[in-house]
Amino acid sequence: APSAFHGLFETWLLKYGFKPIGGDRVTFLYREGTSVILLSIYVDDGIAACNNKELYQRFLADLGKDFELSNQGPVSWYLGVSVKQDLANKRTTLSQCGTST
C-alpha cells in the first residue's frame, strides 16, 4: 500500500509541475518564476519549504482537493529528527540528540 500511495502521489506532483530531485524520487522541486517549493515525502509523511507564502497556500489548497492533509504548522520533529528554526538569523538546526538507536 505505501508504494501504491507513493506512485499516485508522485503522479499528482509531476502533473502539477514538480520535478524529482535525485534517484530515490522522494524529494521534488517546483519552480514558478523566482518562487520554489521543495517537498520531501517518506511513506505518508511530508515536509515542505517554500519562499512564497501565497504560492504555498495555493499548492496546499490544490493538493487538498485530491488528498487528505494535516498541516501541523512549523516543523519541530520530522522522522526522528529535531528541527529548530531561527527565522531572524535564517538558520535551521537539525539534531538527533536524545533519540534512541
Name the features.
101 residues, alpha+beta, single chain, 36% strand
Question: How would you concisely characterize the structure shown here?
Answer:
The chain has 101 residues and is an alpha+beta fold.
Show the helix and strand layout.
Elements: H1 2-16, E1 19-21, E2 27-32, E3 35-42, E4 45-50, H2 53-64, E5 77-78, E6 81-86, E7 91-95
Antiparallel strand pairs: 1-2, 2-3, 3-4, 5-6, 6-7
Contiguous runs where pLDDT drops below 50 for at least 5 residues: none
Mean pLDDT over the full residue set: 86
Quaternary organisation of the protein chains: single chain
- What's the arrangement of strands in the largest beta sheet? 1-2-3-4
- Alpha-carbon distance between the two ends: 27 Å
DSSP strand tally = 7
Largest sheet: 4 strands, antiparallel
Radius of gyration: 15 Å
Q: What is the beta-strand fraction?
A: 35-45%
Question: What overall geometry do the principal axes of the alpha carbons give?
Answer: globular
Order of helices and strands: HEEEEHEEE
- Helix/strand/pairing class, anyone? alpha+beta
What count of helical segments does DSSP give? Answer: 2
Helix content: 25-40%
